[in-house]
Specification:
This protein has about 450 residues and is mainly alpha-helical. It is built from 26 helices and no strands. Helix 23 packs antiparallel against helix 24. It is elongated. It starts with a helix and ends with a helix.
């Protein structure tokens, strides 16, 4: 339509000679603006809408679109001008009033927001306006006004949920958690079994540090909905937070049996077994999880760690090798492989792995590990030269000095080793490594 209209308008023709064009031009501008907006060309789209407005200045719809597009570009002052003009043309348009109220909220103009969101009697236009006003009052710490507004919402619509949530929130912020819970319980009387209300109760207890009370809420929910997935997940998290590991395992195993595809529960169980040192069980769970989600590279990494601790060196390397170079765990995976090669006495391959890791994520621990590997490979001079280069760049780095001392010790240069340890202790008298080294040497 746009292409046809434009093509039929010969350059230089006046709209006076084309009444049809004069009538349709605002619509064409609007269609052009809509297409530009869909392409993300917001500035040009706004220009098209304003052209349409210049031809039809009393179109509330065009004014609202121009206001919305201005707001999306963070041109709030212009958006307000357009929206206020739309309201002037249609004072009863609640959509325009709500949009204006939102703009005034962004601009922190409470008085103007109240003007457009309340009726002549000072009451909110509707529940949506009340919710918006509640947010404005909460933003500005007018908690008494927020509470009054929430009470109005409940009185106006006792079967709605938003009033109960708003009032409970206001009471919580006013330091009255008992009243907040009572409000949510009243909501539950109206809406028995409403999960959102139970979630608010649990969240309130968690925010107050009452994890035991939070668990009690989840138990209530499970009495009504015994297989509710997100409640079981939240219960397990709360139990782990209280270090009730056995209870958490029971909850997670219920989740695993009800929802075999729940990767989160399966991995939680795997990590619990990992932390307990039950590596064979952890390995089995990690492997099962990866059958369903082979690109979960965080899991791949920990599978490698578990296999190494089980003494499965080649299988561990195979797991670490799967971590791609762009993943956050890549450098750690290569370092773990280096550790396996070091344990096997293959220092050349260990050094190559650390050098690769340093190319991706250079760090001081990797620098020091590389120096240590060079020393263990028998290249003491190369290790010392490398550390001296690092020291030249960071002369006050106690860890570099400490490692230089260690390598001198490995070269049987005991006096030089002690001298470096004394330098470290002069910088940090509580350096545990240097104290231990000196004491052990003496």
């Amino acid at each position: 339509l746009v292409a046809g209209g434009c093509a039929s308008w010969a350059p230089g023709e006046s709209s006076r000679t084309s009444p049809a064009l004069e009538e349709t031009a605002p619509e064409l501008d609007f269609l052009v603006g809509r297409d530009l907006e869909a392409e993300g060309r917001l500035e040009e789209a706004l220009e098209a809408y304003t052209r349409a407005l210049s031809k039809d200045p009393e179109s509330v719809y065009l004014l609202k679109r121009a206001a919305e597009l201005s707001a999306r570009q963070n041109r709030l002052a212009e958006a307000v001008v357009y929206a206020e003009r739309a309201l002037e043309l249609e004072p009863e348009n609640e959509g325009v009033r709500l949009f204006l109220g939102t703009l005034y909220r962004f601009r922190k103009d409470v008085a103007s927001a109240e003007r457009v969101l309340r009726d002549e009697d000072g009451q909110p236009l509707n529940e949506d306006a009340a919710v918006l006003l509640y947010g404005i009052y909460a933003d500005n710490r007018r908690l008494g006004d927020a509470r009054t507004l929430a009470e109005w919402m409940i009185d106006t619509n006792p079967d709605g949920l938003r009033g109960y949530f708003a009032l409970a929130d206001a009471q919580e912020k006013l330091g009255d958690p008992a009243a907040s819970e009572a409000t949510l319980r009243t909501g539950l009387e109206r809406h028995p079994g409403e999960l959102a209300l139970y979630a608010a109760l649990a969240r309130g207890r968690r925010m107050r540090g009452d994890r035991v009370g939070e668990i009690a809420i989840y138990r209530e929910v499970l009495e009504i909905h015994p297989q509710h997935r997100s409640t079981l997940q939240a219960l397990a998290e709360a139990q782990l937070a209280l270090e009730r590991t056995e209870e958490a395992v029971e909850t997670l195993e219920v989740l695993e049996s009800l929802y075999p595809e729940d990767l989160r529960a399966r991995l939680r169980l795997a990590f619990i077994e990992f932390e307990r040192g039950n590596y064979e069980v952890a390995e089995e769970r990690f492997e099962f999880a990866l059958e369903q989600n082979p690109e979960e590279y965080e899991v791949v990494y920990f599978l490698g760690v578990v296999r190494w601790r089980l003494g499965e060196d080649e299988a561990a390397i195979a797991a670490f090798d799967r971590v791609p170079v762009e993943h956050d765990r890549f450098a750690e995976a290569r370092t773990q492989i280096a550790g396996i090669y070091e344990h096997q006495g293959d220092f050349e391959r260990a050094i190559a792995e650390v050098e690769w890791a340093r190319e991706i994520h250079d760090s001081r621990p990797l620098d020091l590990y590389l120096a240590s590997l060079r020393a263990k490979a028998g290249d003491l001079d190369g290790a010392l030269a490398f550390l001296q280069q690092l020291l030249d760049e960071s002369p006050d780095d106690a860890e570099i000095l400490y490692n230089i001392g260690v390598i001198h010790g490995e070269a049987k240069q005991i006096d030089e080793a002690i001298r470096y340890m004394q330098i470290v202790l002069g910088m940090n008298p509580d350096h545990a490594g240097a104290l231990n080294y000196v004491g052990y040497t003496w």
